[in-house]
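RECORD TYPE: protein structure
NAME: Carboxymuconolactone decarboxylase family protein
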Amino acid sequence: MSRTTVLDREVGQALSALSATAKRGLGDPALAELVVIRASQLNHCAFCLDMHLGLARRHGVSQRQLDLLAAWEEAGDGVFDERERAALALTEAVTVVTDGFVPDEVYATAAKHFDEPRLAHLIALIVAINNWNRVMVARRIPPGGYTP
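PREDICTED:
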């Protein structure tokens, strides 16, 4: 079965605007890339992984962090700091809503590390990448084709 590669221009623009606004509001491009990469790992989105791994490197994310991101909980404190861990835990909770909600303790930990506006932008960023992942995975868009 062939799948469409078409994405409505207005839909693409809306998703791009949400992503850009959330990243700007978060104010930490390296952390934003860790978040979108982790969600993309969970969603098996090769296109987004390919794109955001390159962007992460450009924003100074270390190769060690990229190599250990899939196992961030086990990587130890020397790899991801508390703020990054809180953002990654929230990313996983929002991306994989297994109990129908984000656990209070995960939200509370994130709220300790992000003021309300940044927390709102972090949540928006997680929602945005999950939207992109689903749009790309549903159509099975392969990696490549992205140029910054």
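COMMENT: Residues 86 and 108 are 9 Å apart (CA to CA).
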